[in-house]
Amino acid sequence: MRSIWKGAIAFGLVNVPVKVYSATEDHDISLHQVHDKDGGRIKYQRRCEVCGKIVDFEHIDKAYDDGERTVILDESDISTLPVEKSREIEVVEFVPSDQLDPITFERSYFLEPDGASTKAYVLLRRTLEQTDRTAIVQFALRQKTRLGALRVRGDVLMLQGLLWDDEVREASFPALDEKVRISAQELKMSSSLVESFAADFDPSKFTDEYQEQLRELIDAKLAKGDDVSTEETFGTSDGDEDDGAEVLDLMAALQRSVEKNRASRKKPAAKKPAANKAPAKKKAG
User: Where are the domains of the chain?
Assistant: First the structure.
């Protein structure tokens, strides 16, 4: 494993240097899209809807759209926001472990001691085990301020990102307000059914059947020679030679659909700009 971040747990006056590793990984088979007629790869381009040009990442800013107005934020604007000022995982409180609702858990990370001595690391781990508490921490990662839970998994300290309180929705369903009568016999039979399925959870017993069968399907096609050279699936043009051609970017198409739908609901009679005006703006630029 390769560490993605280095920092330190700030535990009162105790400082615990750590390396951070992603605790999970995705094993899904990666598929890409191709043209059904010739097998050519489908190419998505960052094309500007105003000038029609393909834009490099260095010339792309971020923007917020409220439906009617758009606010553009460049790098100088973003730089004024709070960023990853320190490499500290700050412990703010210790809470009973059973008070954490699993719905708030996000990504998980393993923490490895990063220093000549592991004593502070082991001390914090044993303290959490003995008190049956979870440390609530605050930290910054990838330009985001985050809330997290620091707990023990085996011999390792594990950090789990937590959703902020306002990110968890409230569930309210009118149907559950109705009074329902459950008889003692029905509850007994339901409990018996649960007991018949009772077991200790062993995640190794479960596999992703879809991914296994997808791999078998791919291997079978390869064995039959039902494949093409990967090199043949790439085109020869660099994408800039046909600026006049109408190349549909999936994201741009979706954005245009959203804007068209908004315009039809808010201003049915509004005149939409003609698509053939793009070359004129391109010439002006």
Answer: 1-52+82-168+212-285, 174-205
Q: What is the mean pLDDT of residues 116-131?
A: 91
CATH architecture entry for 1-52+82-168+212-285: Beta Barrel (2.40)
Is 264 buried (19+), middle (13-18) or exposed (0-12) by CB count in 10 A?
A: exposed
Q: Which range in 127-131, 202-206, 240-244 is most confidently predicted, on average pLDDT?
A: 127-131
Confidence of residue 241 (pLDDT cuts 50, 70, 90): very low
What does the pLDDT look like over 48-75, one tens digit per residue? Answer: 988 989 999 889 999 989 888 899 888 8
Between 264 and 224, the more confident residue is 224
Residue pointed to by tokens 């781990």: 125
Taking the alpha carbons of 82, 88, 89, 91 in that order, is the dihedral positive or negative?
A: negative
pLDDT digits 0-9 by tens, 181-238? 999 999 999 999 999 988 998 888 888 888 888 888 888 988 888 888 888 888 765 5
- Token pair 């709070």 in the structure block, residue: 82
Residue 42 near residue 49, CB atoms below 8 Å: no
Calpha distance 133→118 (Å, rounded): 21
Neighbours of 284 (CB within 10 A): 7
Residues 6+ apart with CB under 8 A from 138: 89, 90, 92, 145, 146, 147, 148
Q: 126, 17 in Cβ contact below 8 A?
A: no
Query: Where does residue 139 rank: exposed (0-12), middle (13-18), buried (19+ CB within 10 A)?
Result: buried
C-alpha–C-alpha distance, residues 134 and 128, integer Å:
6
What is the bridge-based pairing of β-strands 5-11 and 88-96?
parallel
- Alpha carbons 95 and 35: distance in angstroms, whole number: 54
What sign does the dihedral 4-138-100-118 (CA atoms) show?
positive
